[in-house]
Structures are given as structure tokens and as C-alpha cells.
């Protein structure tokens, strides 16, 4: 079962020659989810060979132009490519009206169903759930209502160890009970605790996305042991006053959070256009949290190597 | 005095790996004008080193998504870059509301003045005029109201030939009269017809932009002797029925128009994503109009070589 993230854009506010605006694709078990959708996201999806029409859900963190202006064009292209499957968009209130206004003036309403779900900033909330994955939003602190997102695999159930079938005749009902945690006593009286007749499930992996936000130390408890944390690092720490004034985070602060949350890896993004090579930001963060990577366009983060 | 066009995007409807959506910059005498603004236009402006904040006027042909969705992001970036100079946007009615709606939901209204002028489709209309240039709109025929644009230099006045000052003492008043067309009689009685004391002005150049439109043979009279005609060629002629049904033009039809209008050069653009290399479209057009070029991202067309 795959679980990887492809970063489409690591720029903030203004795109540069090398950096697109916020956008990334989470691929979990062949389900594609899009997080944020700055201008140019559809071009990046094509560049990195992510089928537009395999995206089932879009998650927009907040309504600043560099995080949603790619959405009208993406929806238009999905429609032109013949999409019929429904799309759900999680976003702050207001985006739905904007999108519908655009359908009206462009005389083009997509033929596939679009559902908007308004995100809230009161606390951590479950947005979406399937058999294997849960997606949560949680409040960030920016100049406008803003949420981060957590993609957390569920703890899988143990699998029945089929090698047992070579030794005993075991009924389907017994197998179901074993999968639910039962021990097994063979017809010859041999007792097998559950752990000896099952294969432990893979450790569930988790991914968190934090952009844009003031540095929030209290997030460390929310994000404990997240495998990969993508966090904005708009500025280096010498501009911490500017970061605070604009409700952004410095590379040092992102690393402090990663360290306190004991995450597996920190990936930085949402770089100010003043940094020609944001490697300086990753270098700054590594002083505090060693396993820090600089995000870049086309980067693929595999949570299950 | 420079007069050149930089093409930012030659794709239609859906961007491809290689083609951006409609957008081009007209540079006339160091005034920058933007024609159409598909998603990604601001990235292309940066790539081709066109200063966003030197653009004074934007001309939007029609309200299909691939021609205007780059505008909200462009305006946002202009503002973030500190623009204070006014911007005028010529566009069909409706775009102004969309743009203002976007300012509202993104909580960011630019600090520079923006004036919207609604384009009309009743006939050829003068939109803009300065000392050296006139910009006209003229109706095209598409599924929604759509106009083309003509950038036509004015016939300059003859310049006074300063070499005359080496031979005679000529008063400023006499020079003004000469510039206005007067002949000159020297103090020694020598008569100089105006043409002998002036330098003829450069031949005025003109550029026309036609996208998107059904093939309109009657445009040949409107576009007579245009130096460069940029015309959409969404399809090859084997898809002429599809072109007609979608109110587009084939490469053959664009060439017929160029031929009948006796333009200097035809540049094709707005290619359907089905053509991996639109050179096939230019090749088709050349069978009818030899001086045809395939438009491409980054192409610079100099009207004054």
C-alpha cells in the first residue's frame, strides 16, 4: 500500500522563476488528494504525471490567493477532460461562492458534481475517513482562518497467518475470530495465543501539513510522532519579527516544533521569494532538528519506503 | 522606437506540459500592454523578464477560463511588489465583479487604482490612444462575446532635417511650420519644398490579435496590410467541422484570412492540446500563406526589425 506526497509548489505569495505556489498531492493506496491549489497547480500536476481526474478530494488551507487561485482552472480542465466522478472540496466558507461566480461568468459549469465542505477552526476535526485512512483538519493561526491537515493511517488489524492452514483445518468463522483478536486452540488441544496465528499489521504512517501559520508551540502535542511534517518556513530566523508580524514561521521555529513533536522528518516549504536557494533555511533548521529536508517542486516523499 | 510582441502562451483550454494558456505582451516604445491572461501568465512574465509593474493596460478578449484566470494572481503579485501606478483593464462586463469578489474573499484589495472598461462587440472601437499608438477592439465571433485587438502606430510627422541648420539660420517658429508641412524659403531666396527640409517618418506598423473566433472572411477588409496578424488555429483543417461547432478557426482558414488581408506575417497560436507539435498547423497554413510562423512560448515578434 503506497503512501507518498508529491510537492507541486514551494513558493509563497509571488511565484518565482523556479518556484510554483502551494500545492501537493497525497497518494494513499492509489487515492489522490490535493492539498492547496495555487495558480499553476494544474500545470504542475501534468508535469508530474498526476491524473487530474483521479483526484477525489481537495483540501484548501485558507483563502489567500497563493493557495486557491489554481482551483477554477483545475475544475475547468477536469470538466474538459470529461470528468464524471464527484469531487469534494474542503475549504473555508467563501471559496464556494467564488467558484460558482466563476462558472457563471465563464459560461461553463462543470458536468461533474462538486461538493463544498466548509472547514472550521475550533479544534481538530475529522474531515474524511475510509477503511485505511483518516484526514483531519486542525486550526493554524494566520491573518485569515486557516487550517492544517493530518493524513493518518488507521491501525490495521492483524492478518491471519495463512501458514496455519498447512497444519490445521481452520473454519472461516475461526479465521474471522482470529482477525478480531481471538486466540486459537487446535483440535489436538494445542493453544496458540493470537500473536502466534497472526501477522502484525504495518505500523500506521502519518503526514501533517502546516501552512501558513504563526509558530504555534502547542501544536507539538497534536503532532506527536507524525512521520513527516511539512511545515512552512517563509523566513530565516533573522527575520523572526517579520515572520511574527505577517503570521508566518521561521525555519528555526519549524525545527523547534518538529523537535518537540518528535516527528520523523521535517520538510520545509512556502519560501519567501527573497531566498534564491532555500537550502539556507533547511541548513538553519538542521541546527535544531537534524532530519530536515528542503521541499522542492517535484519532490516525492515516501512514507512507506 | 521598439515595437515587439512576446508570446507567453499558445495553448487552448487545457495547458499542456509545453504550452501555457493565452497571454502576450506588446511592448511599444517601452509601454507594456498585456493581451489575455490565462492561468500562469504571471509565471511566464517573470520567465521572460517582463516587469509586472510596467504593464499599464490589460486587454481581455473574452471570458473563457483560459483567457482570464491568471488575472487575479497577477493583480495580487503586482500589489505585493508595491505597485502604485494605475492599471486599466479592458474586458467584457462581468470580469470586474469576479475580480472584486476575489479581493473580498482573499481579504486583499490592491492598493493601486484599477479601472475596468467594458469592451463592446458592436464594431471596431478605439480603446486607447497616445501620441504614437492607437489600440482598437473589433468583434470576433465565439460562443461568448469576444473581441480582437489592433495595435496601430499613428502616421508620424516628418522630422525637421537638422542638417539645414548648417546652411541657414532658421527660427524655431519656422522649424515648427516645417514640421507641420510648410515649405521653406531661405533668406537668399532659395526655395525648398517641404520634402527637402524634412526626414520622412518611419512607416507605421500594426499588429492584430484574433483569438478565439469562428473563421470570419469579412475581417480581411478590417485587417488589410496589417504587418503581423496573430490568429488562433485551434485545429487543422481536417477538423473543420469541429472548428465550426466550437466557434474556432482552422490553420487553413487563418491562412486564407491572412492572404486576403495581405498581411505581412501570420503567427498561429491557441493550439488544441491534441497537437504535440503545432508545426503541422503552420505547415498546413503555409500552403496558402507562405509567411506563416508557429507561435511558441517565449517567441518575440519584432515589428521594427
Quick take:
Chain A is 24% helix and 27% strand. Chain A has 10 helices and 18 strands.
Total strands of chain A: the figure is 18
Quote the beta fraction of chain A.
Answer: 25-35%
The CATH superfamily of the largest domain in chain A is known as: Ribonuclease Z/Hydroxyacylglutathione hydrolase-like
CATH architecture of the largest domain in chain A: 4-Layer Sandwich
Output the strand order for the largest sheet of chain A: 6-5-4-3-2-1-18
Into how many domains do the coordinates of chain A divide? 2
Most strands sheet of chain A: 7 strands, mixed
- Report the order of strands and helices of chain A: EEEHEHHEHEEEEEHEEHEEHEHHEHEE
Number of helices of chain A: 10
CATH topology of the largest domain in chain A: Metallo-beta-lactamase, Chain A
Question: What is the gyration radius of chain A calculated from CA atoms?
Answer: 22 Å
What features would you describe in this structure?
Two copies of one chain form a homodimer. The longest helix of chain A is centred in the N-terminal third of the chain and has 11 residues. In chain A, α9 packs across α10. By secondary structure, chain A is α/β, with parallel strands linked by helices. The mean pLDDT of chain A is about 95. Chain A folds into two domains: about 260 residues, Ribonuclease Z/Hydroxyacylglutathione hydrolase-like (Metallo-beta-lactamase, Chain A, 4-Layer Sandwich), CATH 3.60.15; about 40 residues, no CATH class. In chain A, the strands form four sheets. In chain A, strands 6-5-4-3-2-1-18 form a seven-stranded mixed sheet. A seven-stranded mixed sheet of chain A has the order 7-8-9-14-15-16-17, covered by helices on one side. In chain A, β7 and β8 form a beta hairpin. The first copy, chain A, starts with a strand and ends with a strand. Chains A and B meet through α1, α2, α3 and α4 of A and α1, α2, α3 and α4 of B.
Amino acid at each position: 500500500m503506497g503512501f507518498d506526497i508529491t510537492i507541486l509548489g514551494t513558493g509563497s505569495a509571488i511565484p518565482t522563476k523556479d518556484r510554483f505556489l502551494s500545492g501537493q498531492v497525497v497518494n494513499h493506496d492509489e487515492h489522490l488528494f490535493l492539498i492547496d491549489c495555487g495558480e499553476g497547480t494544474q500545470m504542475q500536476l501534468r508535469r508530474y504525471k498526476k491524473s487530474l481526474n483521479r483526484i477525489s478530494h481537495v483540501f484548501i488551507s485558507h483563502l489567500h490567493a497563493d493557495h486557491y487561485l489554481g482551483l477554477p482552472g483545475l475544475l475547468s480542465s477536469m470538466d474538459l477532460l470529461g470528468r464524471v466522478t464527484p469531487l469534494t472540496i474542503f475549504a473555508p466558507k467563501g471559496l464556494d461562492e467564488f467558484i460558482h461566480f466563476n462558472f457563471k461568468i465563464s459560461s461553463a459549469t462543470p458536468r461533474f458534481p462538486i461538493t463544498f465542505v466548509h472547514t472550521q477552526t475550533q479544534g481538530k476535526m475529522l474531515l474524511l475517513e475510509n477503511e485505511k485512512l483518516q484526514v483531519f483538519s486542525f486550526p493554524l493561526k494566520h491573518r485569515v482562518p486557516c487550517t492544517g491537515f493530518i493524513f493518518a493511517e488507521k491501525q490495521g488489524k492483524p492478518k491471519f497467518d495463512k501458514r496455519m492452514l498447512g497444519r490445521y483445518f481452520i473454519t472461516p468463522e475461526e479465521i474471522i475470530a482470529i482477525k478480531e483478536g481471538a486466540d486459537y486452540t487446535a483440535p489436538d488441544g494445542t493453544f496458540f495465543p493470537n500473536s502466534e496465528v497472526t501477522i502484525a499489521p504495518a505500523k500506521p504512517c502519518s503526514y501533517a501539513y502546516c501552512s501558513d501559520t504563526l509558530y504555534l508551540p502547542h501544536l507539538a502535542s497534536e503532532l506527536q510522532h507524525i512521520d513527516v511534517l511539512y511545515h512552512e518556513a517563509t523566513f530565516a530566523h533573522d527575520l523572526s519579527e517579520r515572520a511574527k508580524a505577517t503570521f508566518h514561521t521561521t525555519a528555526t521555529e519549524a525545527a523547534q516544533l518538529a523537535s518537540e513533536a518528535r516527528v520523523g522528518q521535517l520538510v520545509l516549504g512556502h519560501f519567501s521569494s527573497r531566498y534564491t536557494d532555500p537550502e539556507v533555511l533547511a541548513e538553519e533548521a538542521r541546527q535544531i532538528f537534524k532530519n530536515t529536508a528542503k521541499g522542492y517542486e517535484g519532490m516525492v516523499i515516501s512514507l512507506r519506503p
